[in-house]
Amino acid sequence: MDMLTDAARFIQLDPAGICFLFIVGFIGGLVSGFIGSGGAFVLTPGMMSLGVPGTVAVASNMCHKFPKALVGSIKRYKYGQVDIKLGLYLAAFAGIGVQIGIKIQNFVLNLWGPAGSDLYVSVSFVAVLVVVGGIVMRDALASAKSCGAEQTCSVALRLQKIELWPMLTFKKANLRISMWFLLPVGLATGLLAATIAVGGFVGVPGMIYILGASSLVASATELVIAFVMGLAGSVNWAMQGMVDIRLTLIILAGSLLGVQLGAIGTTFVKEHMIKIVMGTIMLIVALSRGFAMPKYLAKLGLMDVTPDTIALLDKVSFGFMVVSLVVGAVIILGSMFKAKRPAAVAATSEA
Amino acid sequence: MQAKAKKPVAKLMAYGIGSVALYAAVYQFQDILLTTSARGGVFTALPIATVFLFSWIHGTFAGTLWEVLGVNAVTKAPAQTATRAPARQDSRPRATVSV
Questions:
Q1: Are A238 and B48 a contacting pair at CB < 8 A?
Q2: Measured between CB atoms, does A241 come within 8 Å of chain B?
Q3: What keyword terms does UniProt attach to this protein (chain B) (predicted)?
Q4: B37 and chain A: CB distance < 8 Å anywhere?
Q5: What angle do CA A336, A337, A340 make, to 5 degrees?
Q6: How many CB pairs under 8 A join A and B?
Q7: Measured between CB atoms, which of A5, A71, A268 is closest to B74?
């Protein structure tokens, strides 16, 4: 009986599928190493398109996420970018946020069924990514125009001045702030992680615009949060026997190469590049989820769409997700190449 | 002229062989790995320990590979530095007082 279940749960892998997972793992790792999160939103549907059942795809993806985050955070810690204390505090609050997120998901599922739940996830995806991605992109473009050093957000500076017990000091992030302002950032990160599986899309901007960390420290510290949350989630999934270790290790083969290249990249480029990559990816992913919404609206009887159109929109939606990751990777590699070239020219002329 | 740093080719080879050996072992014993992992419960330790082992061996190989390929981090000022007084503009010697 168990063997039958296992056979259905774990698919046969072909060379094309292995190459696909390795490449997406590499690109996802590159983006994660650079902006602190990303890749998961393409890997889960990508594995499902290979025939992997949804729960196994989520479990195997999560099981590759925490070692990737571990390797990335160690690398960025060596560059002096990680605030471990800030990461651990936020991870603890994010854990509570995940539990709240699961409760909300179950409430929506009981109220409107699976289609309503999917629509809730898509609406959350689009709303959060458009608002937060828009703010990040606007700030990134303003920083790029001014060409100056990164300025701490005025909201964060005001919050840091409020002496509300208990006050916490984070040396590496160079900030002192009340725990009560840390709590909503952590909760929102966990809530989003439980809803759309990419908590970093709110965690990193939260650290930058609410707590006042620099984008380098925020993106590096997000890797600590991803490690703690990923490890807890992976143990949970592994207890249920849902992890396909082969899929995890294939993705890990690419992502450990990518995450270290992304981490090296952060030392090459100007800080606003992290915001540009993050804003670009968030806005393209929002567009992608927008294309998926008619399917759920049709299931709820709120829209009349033919099955052919839904199939086409599904493909377009997945295509845009892949595009977002590829565009992010191209910007990272392009900016690294651009930053490296003057140094190489200078070295040649010296010789 | 600055001497070029020696590239860690031996380390790359050692961890590269280790990484290939681990992946070959997974390919060879994939059925037993999958069925044991699928049992859950106390066997949870198997997939978790496996990914930790891979992240050490393959992670070190990946990091060394970029180093050997010449893709190294640029050393620059730390992300957050303490506020320092601006550099002195005046090139004349400072006045001193002998007591």
A1: yes
A2: yes
A3: Membrane, Transmembrane, Transmembrane helix
A4: yes
A5: 85
A6: 119
A7: A268
Question: Distance (Å) from the C-alpha of residue B51 to the closest C-alpha of chain A?
Answer: 7
The CA distances from residue B29 to A237, A245, B15, B19, B26, in Å, are: 22, 11, 21, 15, 5
Q: Is A25 on the interface with B (CB under 8 A)?
A: no
Burial class from Cβ neighbours inside 10 Å (0-12, 13-18, 19+) for residue A145 reads exposed
Q: Confidence class of residue A289 from pLDDT cuts 50, 70 and 90? A: confident
Domain regions of chain B by residue span? 9-68
Extract the tokens encoding A282. 């968030």
CA dist A50 and A318 (Å) reads 13
B69–A contact, CB cutoff 8 A? no
Chain A partners of B76 at a C-beta cutoff of 8 Å? 267
Q: Using one digit for the tens of pLDDT, what is the confidence trace for A182-207? A: 999 999 999 888 877 778 889 999 99
Do A193 and A36 contact (CB within 8 A), yes or no?
A: no
- H or E stretch at A299: helix A272-299
Rounded to two decimals, the ipTM of the complex is 0.86
